[in-house]
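Q: How would the C-alpha cells look for this protein?
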Amino acid sequence: MENLPFYIIVFFLATVGLALCLFVYTTKYKLSVAIVALAWLAVTGILSWKGFFKNTSVIPPRLLLVMLPAIMFVVLVMITKRGRRFIDELNLKKLTILHIVRIPVELVLYWLAAQKTIPELMTFAGRNFDILSGITAPIIYSICFKGSELINRKLLLVWNFICLGLLLNIVINAILAAPFPFQQFAFDQPNIAIFYFPFAWLPVFIVIVVLFGHLAAIRKLIKASDHS
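A: Here is the predicted structure in C-alpha cell form.
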C-alpha cells in the first residue's frame, strides 16, 4: 500500500467528500447529521490510520465489528418513530441522485485491482456491476421526476430494489474475498485495501450511506403506495 499512486488516494478522498456532501444534501443540510457523519469519519479514520483493521485473524473481524454500530444506527432510524419522521422529511429526488457517488467508487476499485490490493472480481471487470447503479441514477432521476413531482413511483421502487441487490452483491463478495478466517475466494489476491487508510472509509462510510439511501427511498415509496 506504500507504493500506491497518489492520484488514487486523492481521488478516493474526493469521493468520500462527495458522498458526505450528497448525504448531508439529502437531509436538507441538517447540522446534526453533518456532525455525526464527520465524527464517524474521524473515529474510523483514526482506527484505520493506526492499523486497527489489519488484524484479520480475530472473530468477529474488527472491520465488520466497527461497521456494526453504523448498521444498527440505520436499523434504528428505520424502525423508530423519530427515525421514520426523519426519513419522511427526506427528498426522493435527492435520495436518487445520491447514488452517482458509485461511479467514482467503481473507478477507485478498478485502480486498486490494477495495483494488486483487491481482486479483479470486486471491479466491473469481474463480479461487481454496482457501477450500473451510478450510471442509471441520473437517468432514473430524469424519467421518474417532473419538476418536484414523482411521476413513476413503480419504476423508482424497482430500481432501488435492483440497486440494493447490486450493493449487497459486491459487499458479500468483498467480505468473502478478504483474508478473514472464513475467506472463500481470491486467495491469490485477497481484498486488503479496505484495511488501510483512507480506503477503510469505503465499507464503514460510503457503503452505509448508499445502503441508507436505498432503504429510506424504499420506505418512502412503499408508504406513498399505501396511501394512494
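DSSP finds nine helices and two strands in the chain.

The radius of gyration is 18 Å.

Upvote if useful.
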